[in-house]
Design goal:
alpha/beta; single chain; 16 helices; Rossmann fold
Length: about 325
């Protein structure tokens, strides 16, 4: 005999509620770094875990996040191993920029986390209007800080379109259904960036040698990075420059000690670009803007890592360790 529809629906709803309660009880993300994709809910929960920790907040882009490196070999994880007495809240991520760092700091403070210090990288290329991250917030971060984006900033930034009815319904469902609002994070935790078919494809490419052939044919060349760095002077109305000034002012106003560093750059690969006087002038301009009471600026643009670069500004595991060692020294010097 078939169960009546009302009973079947009630059982299904009860099962969903139990599954969601179990998920809420067990799912507490505490990664050493953010995944490549994450939801707004994941970001908020990750930050909230540090409310009583007075962490060193790390802000930055993929060069600090550890592009193409496992989390265990990334610069912040190596830094954490070198300075275990500190707690690190790592908010660097793929596609970061100065604008993203500014709003990530604002989110941290708005959620009741008081940093003991801040570390952030200043990447020259992100001041280039042609850069993909220029004046754009990562969508997960933008949704988290939307109430803090004033009218002026909305004219400066390339923001998400106004929410549609479908977006509002999605947010409503997510507000009561934890598993639903963090479905992206669960998928990434289970399968990484790819779905299962993608994992199988990657495995086949590796076994057949196709992946190795692809990597050999796509080794970085100087021509691949032409135009990456803008050699014209950074203008006062450059959006990343405006964000840099505001980031500096907020750190000073809230008396948060910080060390900012110019991102290590592969001068062997980019000699034609980095030898241009405009390149050095912009680095000096960035450093000058960032300096303030309690803020140290370290020029690591020419950090000697012995050629341990993956491309123009991403370090391999050895280079990441060397960067972490230098950052450990800079961290020790904060406030002195």
């Amino acid at each position: 005999m078939r169960a009546p529809w009302p009973l079947a629906i009630a059982v299904a709803v009860a099962a969903l509620i139990v599954a969601d309660l179990i998920f809420r009880a067990l799912w507490h993300p505490h990664p050493t770094r953010l995944p490549e994709q994450f939801s707004t809910a994941y970001l908020n929960e990750y930050i909230d875990a540090y409310r009583d920790a007075a962490p060193v907040v790390v802000l930055g882009d993929s060069a600090l996040w550890g592009y193409e490196l496992p989390a265990s070999a990334a610069p912040v994880e190596r830094l954490s191993a070198l300075r275990p007495k500190h707690t690190f809240l790592n908010l660097s991520y793929e596609g970061g920029s100065i604008v993203n760092s500014l709003y990530a700091l604002r989110l941290v403070l708005a959620r009741g986390v008081r940093p003991s210090a801040v570390i952030l990288n200043l990447n020259n290329k992100e001041f280039n209007a042609a850069d993909s991250a220029y004046k754009r917030l990562l969508p997960a971060l933008e949704r988290a800080v939307s109430p803090q984006i004033g009218p002026r900033d909305r004219t400066l930034l390339t923001t998400l379109p106004p929410p549609t009815l479908a977006d509002r319904l999605d947010a409503l469902v997510g507000s009561v259904w934890a598993l639903y609002r963090q479905r992206v994070d669960v998928r990434v935790a289970l399968f990484g960036q790819d779905d299962f078919a993608g994992l199988l494809t990657a495995g086949v490419r590796y076994v057949t040698g196709e992946q190795q052939r692809y990597e050999r044919s796509h080794r970085p060349t100087p021509a691949a990075f032409l135009g990456t760095y803008d050699l014209e002077p950074i203008a006062a109305d450059n959006v990343e420059e405006i964000a840099l000034r505001e980031l500096r002012d907020e750190l000073v106003r809230d008396r948060i000690p910080a060390v900012a560093f110019l991102t290590p750059t592969n001068h062997r690969l980019l000699a034609d670009t980095t030898s241009d006087p405009g390149y050095a002038a912009n680095l000096a301009s960035i450093a000058r803007t960032m300096r303030g009471p309690g803020i140290d600026v370290a020029d690591l643009d020419r950090l000697d890592v012995g050629g341990h670069f993956i491309d123009n500004d991403h370090l391999d595991a050895t280079g990441a360790q060397m960067l972490a060692q230098r950052l450990a020294c800079e961290l020790d010097g904060i406030g002195r």
